[in-house]
Amino acid sequence: MVDLDASALTTTELNRKLRELAAQGTEHIHILNPQARHNIAVGLLDTCSITIEGSVGYYAASLMDGPQVTINGNAGWALGENLMKGKVVLTRNAGASLASSMRGGEVFVAGNAGARAGIGMKGGSLVIGGDAGFMTGFMMQRGTIIIGGDVGEGVGDSMYEGTIYVGGEIGSLGSDAKIEEASESELIQVWETMERHGIHDRKKFTKIVSAKKLYHFDSLERLEKRAV
Questions:
Q1: What's the domain count of the chain?
Q2: What is the domain-level CATH number for residue 25?
Q3: Is residue 120 within 8 Å of 138, Cβ to Cβ?
Q4: Rounded CA separation 98/173 (Å)
Q5: What is the pLDDT of residues 103-112, one digit of tens each?
Q6: What is the residue range of 91's domain?
Q7: What is the pLDDT of residues 198-215, one digit of tens each?
Q8: b or e along 199-211 (b: 16 or more beta carbons within 10 Å of the residue's beta carbon)?
């Protein structure tokens, strides 16, 4: 294990050092004194385990393809943005646009998340132990979002594919989102996912999917061909 004192490095130097250590095969990297700085652990492509002791700013653990990052604190907006592969674990609360445009891997937030969690999500799993803000799952295209608590208004607005599970109250459904009965096997899978993160309350999760009334790809294509 390698310890890095973030207070002694600029953000660019810290990320460069992380990439170098990961490329060298370092299995675990321990970051001290992150000072809630932005853009920590960004653009990492090699498999490794990183633990950050303290809160981080925006875009932490984003644009990654492989590492597992654990943050013992809070995070600003866009945590885990565009995650391709790997895992991000946050022990407290996340800001807005959590896991936006993620394509694979898993993001877990033990506390609450702000607005637009999972916006433009294209794959992978987003698990929130507490509550999530408005427009969660906006324009979601694929993947799974699990919310242990309540969710705000406009959940699943304009979602194309993917599934959202809510354990608490729903503020309101977004445009073209609908509630569908969850099967027993689906609920078991959700419960097992939550239990893997230390949450053992087996709630009757509500399943939200796309109503698919806004699917106009074929007609748009025909109109485009006519224009050409």
A1: 1
A2: 2.160.20.60
A3: yes
A4: 19
A5: 999 999 999 9
A6: 2-227
A7: 999 999 999 999 999 887
A8: beeebebbbbbbb
